[in-house]
């Protein structure tokens, strides 16, 4: 095996993690001269900026295609509604916990000198809502306006899907299918571009961290520890309050502890492999064997959840947005934070299948807020840790929503193992 192949055989997140550590050490040891590497990091940031609009357009169109109106019956509406609601709560909790902890407010005062926020005055809540609808969709894409682009692509995708279902003109149908096929091909091409950008990101993160610690010194260590702690605290709150609260309301008389016991295999697997899709076989096994959910429900809800339910990733956007604002010294208004919720929930539909989706979504959020994209490179080094937390939250949410929807549709066998292990049986008697 060649040296390059050996290098490639190591997961990209681990290589970025090593680059994070080595770049930090170089910055601490060398000091100010290490800031000469900053242009390499800037190039990585520019590559990320280049990807924003194409990623939104192609991947979101494919997400809308999977959510065709014909598939949204009663179960579909319940599932999508709960996934969207829990995602909104996830971002709000991430923002709330981060506002309390302020993870980026200590030790990085000189971190992004010259990379100030790009918008001096935040719009009010009414302006944020109105600005979601673009007057010129092409112009919104050209300007990199994220929310208007997402809104137009979702509406356009649904329009294509409805036109395909309602027309009898075969030529129109073929044209729509060709359009979606083009979007599919474009998405696949963008995955390759993302892969290339992330490969270069190993050098980019090394350079960014060398610049960080060359400028800020040892004072830069604490904020990254606080960032991880903030994300973990937000995840615990979200699982304990939102998921288990939804479970208690939707599955009356059953123990939430029994649910967690039934979902433990999937949760542990998600923490281990950091992939919702990769965990899917284990998640389905837990739903069937442990929780007694019928296949007609989990066979639809769990694959859909692995695609569009990104609660952990959405939560991360809230945490990282406050982290970025703290570093730059900007106080995000309620309107700004509402925009974070909207971007994170909407973008989660389209970017779920993208490698490094959390970092890609973060570029959308930071762009919407006018905050510097250099933050993406800074958090990339600790992303392997954050990603495990995000994935575990995502998978737990998939099973929680699936269990509630299955209960609403009389598709749960409460004689299954998890409900009769002594914990679930106590509450049901």
UniProtKB/TrEMBL annotation:
Origin: domain of life: Archaea
Keywords: Cell membrane, Membrane, Symport, Transmembrane, Transmembrane helix, Transport
Residue ranges of coiled coil: none
GO molecular function: symporter activity
InterPro entries: Na-dicarboxylate_symporter, Na-dicarboxylate_symporter_CS, Na:dicarbo_symporter_sf
Signal peptide: none
Pfam family, one: SDF
Location(s) in or outside the cell: Cell membrane
Alphabetical GO biological process terms: carboxylic acid transport
Protein name per the record: Proton/sodium-glutamate symport protein
GO CC annotations, alphabetized: plasma membrane
Record field: transmembrane: 12-31, 43-63, 75-97, 146-164, 193-214, 220-244, 319-347, 359-382
Membrane topology: Multi-pass membrane protein
Main location: membrane
């Amino acid at each position: 095996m060649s040296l390059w192949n050996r290098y490639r055989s190591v997961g990209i997140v681990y290589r970025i993690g090593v680059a994070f550590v080595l770049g930090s050490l170089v910055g601490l040891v060398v000091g100010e001269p290490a800031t000469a590497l900053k242009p390499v990091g800037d190039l990585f940031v520019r590559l990320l900026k280049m990807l924003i609009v194409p990623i939104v357009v192609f991947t979101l169109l494919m997400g809308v295609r999977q959510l065709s109106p014909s598939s949204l019956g009663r179960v579909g509406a319940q599932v999508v509604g709960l996934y969207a609601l829990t995602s909104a709560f996830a971002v709000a909790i991430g923002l709330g916990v981060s506002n309390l902890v302020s993870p980026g407010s200590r030790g990085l005062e000189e971190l992004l000198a010259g990379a100030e926020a790009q918008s001096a005055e935040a719009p009010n809540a009414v302006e944020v809502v109105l600005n979601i609808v673009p007057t010129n969709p092409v112009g919104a894409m050209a300007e990199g306006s994220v929310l208007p682009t997402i809104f137009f692509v979702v509406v356009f995708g649904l329009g294509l899907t409805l036109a395909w279902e309602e027309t009898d003109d075969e030529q129109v149908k073929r044209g729509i299918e060709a359009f979606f096929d083009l979007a599919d091909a474009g998405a696949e091409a963008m995955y390759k571009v993302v892969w290339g950008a992330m490969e270069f990101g190993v050098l980019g993160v090394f350079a960014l961290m060398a610049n960080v610690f060359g400028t800020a010194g040892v004072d830069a260590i604490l904020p990254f520890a606080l960032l991880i702690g903030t994300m973990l605290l937000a995840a615990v709150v979200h699982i304990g309050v939102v998921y288990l609260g939804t479970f208690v309301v939707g599955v009356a008389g059953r123990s939430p502890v029994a649910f967690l016991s039934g979902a433990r295999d999937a949760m542990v697997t998600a923490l281990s492999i950091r992939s919702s899709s990769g965990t899917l076989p284990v998640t389905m096994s837990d739903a069937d064997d442990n929780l007694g959910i019928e296949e007609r429900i989990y066979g639809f809800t769990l694959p859909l959840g692995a695609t569009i339910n990104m609660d952990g990733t959405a939560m991360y956007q809230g945490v990282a947005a406050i982290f970025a604002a703290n570093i730059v010294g900007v106080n995000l208004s309620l309107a700004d934070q509402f925009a974070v919720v909207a971007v994170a929930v909407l973008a989660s539909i389209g970017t779920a299948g993208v490698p490094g989706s959390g970092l890609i979504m973060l570029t959308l959020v930071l762009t919407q807020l006018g905050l510097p994209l250099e933050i993406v490179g800074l958090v990339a080094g600790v992303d392997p840790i954050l990603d495990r937390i995000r994935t575990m939250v995502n998978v737990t949410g998939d099973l929680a929503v699936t269990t509630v929807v299955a209960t609403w549709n009389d598709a749960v066998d409460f004689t299954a193992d998890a409900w009769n292990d002594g914990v679930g049986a106590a509450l049901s008697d």
